[in-house]
Every structure is written in C-alpha cells, then in structure tokens.
C-alpha cells in the first residue's frame, strides 16, 4: 500500500474528525490542545506533508522559509486565512485550502444574535438578573431601540454577509451593503438590498453596521477613527469577521465619547487579548470568537479539511483552494 500522508494538526478537533484523520493519514494530533509556538510550527512544517492549522497559528513567511520540501499543503481548519501568508506559501509551491460554506449559517446566527441583543440591551438585562438586582418593572426601564424599519449596513456581502441579510430582512431591517462589487441583480432583488459603492456614504446613514468581510491588507482598520466618526451617534457596530478590520482602540474611544450607541463584538484585534477600554461598558457585548462554534459546524469544517487533503493526495485540485490574487 502507498505510504500514508503525514499530517500535523495544530489544535484539538471534534473527536469524529480526529478519528477519521487517524484512519486515513499518518496523523499527529495536539493532545493537550495548547496553541503552537513559533518553534512548534517550524518543527511541524519541517516534517509534515500536510499542515492543518487554525486561526491561532501564525504561518508567516518566517515559518514558511523553514518549511521542508515535503510540505505540499496547508489545509486550514477555518474560513479566514489571514493567519497564513498565502502569497509566500503559493510561491513556494504549497497549496492552501480553507473551509468556507459550512460555517456560514452559524456565524450569521451569532451576528444576528448580536444585532438583536445589543440594541435591545439583553446582556444588560441578563446582568441585572444574575446579580439579583431586579427590584421591579417600570415603564421607562431598560428601553432599547426597535429593529423593524431600521437600516442595516453590511460591510462585505459574501456568503456570511448574505446570510446575515436574509435573517435581518425577516426582522424588518432594510438591507444595505458595501462590497468590492455589487452582488447579482437576482440576489439584490431577493434581499431587497441597496448597494453602496461608497462605504463612507453608507456608514453615515446606517442604524446598525455589521462587519462581514475578510481581513486582508485592504480591510485592515477599515473601520478607523474617521469612519467611526461618520456613523450616527444612535448607531451600533457588530463584528463577527476579524478584529483587525476595526481599529479597536479607536472603537473604545468612540464608544466612550458617545460617538456611536453600542457594539457587539465576537472578534478582536489581538486575540485572546481584548482592549481593556472595551471591558465593563454597558452598551458593549463581547463574545470569545464563537461564530462557528457549533458541534455541527466544527465537525463539518473538519470533514471539509479531510476532503481537501484527500482530493489533493489523489492528485486533483482540492475544492477549497485559496487563490492569493482574489484575497
Ligand atoms: C474559527 C473563524 O473559530 O473560520 C474562521 O475564519 O474565524 C472560525 O470559524 C477559526 O478560525 C478556526 O480556525
């Protein structure tokens, strides 16, 4: 029988995924689920045929420069690949794949949950109950803002952005979006979505802004102090994409100065660190990068990784190959 591919998996994955990987490949698993250090990543790229990293592994040009000739594929467990220097990898003849599609609904659910929770102050209400300080209802207590009839501006209208739009539409929000290019007329019509070529102009008119674009050199700090300033003081900012798309320090300042009404964030610029200035603000709901954290989603992500590796090993182009030019 042909020699099995040697794969190194950098984090603990759902048990059925690890089991299948062990059946198919010569698999090295991360027993205690610690985040790989730079040295461990270097050791991995020197021995593995296939590396299976996650968002917590920085596969930069320094790591890739140490890769052995045997490394042919980096099969990311995740949709975003901003932790990988894809350009350098491809220049070295290493194929990169990701796992799009299977986490679309889960991530859009968390975005929608934040869109529902923050303007209606659900996290503040939960805190009142948890601390036992609910001492009676009054007509003007815990008033939030209504969603129906308001404008949602989606930044990045890919799979996840469109899934957020479908959900938001059902709650009566009017859908607006900014993207490098408009979606198809059919999709625009289905979502009754309005395209804004100018992000700045859109931001000034939205009641809620949801970030759903990847983190690339072009989107780093897309939401900077100047753009946060364009938003209405009554507007909310939601981010389930990547922390780096927002200047986190500028966001904390904008929130404290009342330049925007609140924020719901699942991702941060320097995870797992969170700007201290964001902590303890009543109008801010923070989550620890849970967008795709469902048993189904994480299992399907693992299955996708396996399909990408198997297809590649069989000498075909893997279904989820990442092409650097379109990043
Ligand atoms: C994961 C994600 O938490 O897929 C992504 O881009 O951010 C999440 O689904 C993580 O990235 C897995 O590597």
UniProtKB/TrEMBL annotation:
<dbReference type="GO" id="GO:0051287">
    <property type="term" value="F:NAD binding"/>
</dbReference>
<dbReference type="InterPro" id="IPR006140">
    <property type="entry name" value="D-isomer_DH_NAD-bd"/>
</dbReference>
<dbReference type="InterPro" id="IPR029752">
    <property type="entry name" value="D-isomer_DH_CS1"/>
</dbReference>
<feature type="domain" description="D-isomer specific 2-hydroxyacid dehydrogenase NAD-binding">
    <location>
        <begin position="112"/>
        <end position="291"/>
    </location>
</feature>
<dbReference type="InterPro" id="IPR036291">
    <property type="entry name" value="NAD(P)-bd_dom_sf"/>
</dbReference>
<dbReference type="Pfam" id="PF02826">
    <property type="entry name" value="2-Hacid_dh_C"/>
</dbReference>
<dbReference type="GO" id="GO:0005829">
    <property type="term" value="C:cytosol"/>
</dbReference>
<dbReference type="InterPro" id="IPR006139">
    <property type="entry name" value="D-isomer_2_OHA_DH_cat_dom"/>
</dbReference>
<dbReference type="GO" id="GO:0016618">
    <property type="term" value="F:hydroxypyruvate reductase [NAD(P)H] activity"/>
</dbReference>
<dbReference type="InterPro" id="IPR050223">
    <property type="entry name" value="D-isomer_2-hydroxyacid_DH"/>
</dbReference>
<dbReference type="GO" id="GO:0030267">
    <property type="term" value="F:glyoxylate reductase (NADPH) activity"/>
</dbReference>
<keyword id="KW-0520">NAD</keyword>
<keyword id="KW-0560">Oxidoreductase</keyword>
<protein>
    <submittedName>
        <fullName>2-hydroxyacid dehydrogenase</fullName>
    </submittedName>
</protein>
<comment type="similarity">
    <text>Belongs to the D-isomer specific 2-hydroxyacid dehydrogenase family.</text>
</comment>
<feature type="domain" description="D-isomer specific 2-hydroxyacid dehydrogenase catalytic">
    <location>
        <begin position="28"/>
        <end position="322"/>
    </location>
</feature>
<dbReference type="Pfam" id="PF00389">
    <property type="entry name" value="2-Hacid_dh"/>
</dbReference>
């Amino acid at each position: 029988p042909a020699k099995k591919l040697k794969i190194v998996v950098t984090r603990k994955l759902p048990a059925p995924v690890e089991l299948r990987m062990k059946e198919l490949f010569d698999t090295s698993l991360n027993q205690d689920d610690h985040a790989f250090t730079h040295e461990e990543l270097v050791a991995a790229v020197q021995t593995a045929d296939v590396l299976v990293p996650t968002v917590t592994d920085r596969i930069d040009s320094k790591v890739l420069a140490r890769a052995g000739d045997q490394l042919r594929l980096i099969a990311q467990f995740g949709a975003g690949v901003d932790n990988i220097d894809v350009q350098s990898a491809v220049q070295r003849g290493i194929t990169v794949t990701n796992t799009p599609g299977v986490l679309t609904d889960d991530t859009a659910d968390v975005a929608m949950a934040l869109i529902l929770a923050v303007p209606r102050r659900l996290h503040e209400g939960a805190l009142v109950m948890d601390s036992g300080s609910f001492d009676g209802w009054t007509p003007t207590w815990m008033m939030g803002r209504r969603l129906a009839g308001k404008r949602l501006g989606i930044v990045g209208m890919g799979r996840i952005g469109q899934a957020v739009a479908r959900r938001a539409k059902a709650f009566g929000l009017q859908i607006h979006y900014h993207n490098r290019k408009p979606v198809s007329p059919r999709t625009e019509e289905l979502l009754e979505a309005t395209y804004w070529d100018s992000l700045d102009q859109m931001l000034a008119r939205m009641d809620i802004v949801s970030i759903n674009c990847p983190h690339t050199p072009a989107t780093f700090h897309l939401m900077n102090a100047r753009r946060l300033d364009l938003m209405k003081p009554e507007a909310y900012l939601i981010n389930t994409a990547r922390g780096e798309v927002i200047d986190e320090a500028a966001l904390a300042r904008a929130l404290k100065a009342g330049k925007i009404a609140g924020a719901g964030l699942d991702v941060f610029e320097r995870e797992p660190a969170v700007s201290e200035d964001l902590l303890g603000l009543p109008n801010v709901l923070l989550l620890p990068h849970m967008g795709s954290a469902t048993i189904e989603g994480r299992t399907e992500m693992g299955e996708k990784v396996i399909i990408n590796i198997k297809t590649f090993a069989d000498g075909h182009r893997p279904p989820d190959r990442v092409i650097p030019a379109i990043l």
